[in-house]
Each structure stands twice: as structure tokens, then as C-alpha cells.
Amino acid sequence: MKLLCLEAKKNPKTFLAVTSLNINEFDKLYVVFKDEYEKVFGRNSLDNSKPGRPKKLSTIEENLFFILFYCKNYVFQEVMALIFSISQSRVNKIIHELLPVLKYSLDKLGCNPERTGAELKTYLQDEEQKDLLLDATERTIQRPDDDESQKFYYNGKSKAHTVKNIIIGGLNDRRVK
Predict the structure, then answer these.
(1) Does 130 lie in the same domain as 96?
(2) Sign of CA dihedral 90, 92, 97, 103
(3) Strand partners, 162
(4) How far apart are CA 133 and CA 148, in angstroms?
(5) Do 90 and 27 fall within a single domain?
(6) Count of CB atoms situated within 10 Å of the CB of 73
(7) 77 and 156 both lie in a single domain
(8) What predicted TM-score, i.e. pTM, was given to this entire model?
(9) pLDDT value at position 146?
């Protein structure tokens, strides 16, 4: 696993492609992530010397790389297990342990996206005019049971019930709003 992280760091384009961060951004995030990781799991949490224990990732840097890789690529856990040479159940456990640590670390750096329209409105009012990128996707969902929800989620164009995801990002600061 260490080898995978180090290999990716040797090629900045590859590193950016698999984590969405350049190496400098990764290093800045690592400092905050490491502090939070040690608060949550303790300083000696990476000790894997006892026989019979499931294999763990050996450094905090590897853990950060793992969770960023997962969030960027969102591959099946079986595929993650194959790539990182650990069991699927261990992948599941690591994901559930590290996502809150990553979220808190990004929050501390002020990098978490706004989740409500009110937060976004406040952000955009406080900022000067910026170059923004707008992207939207529409995902099909199972047809809701009640009539009101059916009307709300129905998309006449595609004749399906869908949810729209809209992403606004700054072109200069690369921050997702």
C-alpha cells in the first residue's frame, strides 16, 4: 500500500487524477488529518503487530490516500480490496472510520461544500464576483409511494422520477460550493 501512495506521488498528474488534490494540497490536508486521526484513534493505533489481526494500512498518510482515492473514484469495495491488498470487510471498516475524520479535517480547513441553499446564498453574497463553474446531474430514483412526492420528483422530459444534483465550483479557488 505504501508503494501505491509513493508511486502516485512520483507523478503529480496521476496523483491529482486519483485523489483530486495536488501534492501540496494533500500535504496541507495531511497535517490536519493526522491531528484528527490521532485524537480519534490514538497515537499507537497503527500498531499491527499482534498475530491474527486483520491487515491495516500502515501509516496515516496511507489512510488519507485511501479515503481520498475512495471518495474520488467511488469504486466497489471489492475493487478497493484488490487494489489495496486488504479484505473487503476491512475496506468497509476503514471507510466508515475515516470518512468522519476526513469530513472534520476538511471542515477545519474550511473546504467542506455548503449543503443547503441558505448556506450557498450566504456564501455567494459575501464573496466578490468570481468565475464559477456550474454542473448538474440527474439520477433516477425509485418511484415514491405518495402522490405529492411523485409529482415533486417526476421529470416529464425523461418520463422518470429523478433527483437533481447541482454543483457550483470556483474556477480560481477550486472550492466546491
Answers:
(1) no
(2) positive
(3) 140
(4) 32
(5) yes
(6) 14
(7) no
(8) 0.68
(9) 87
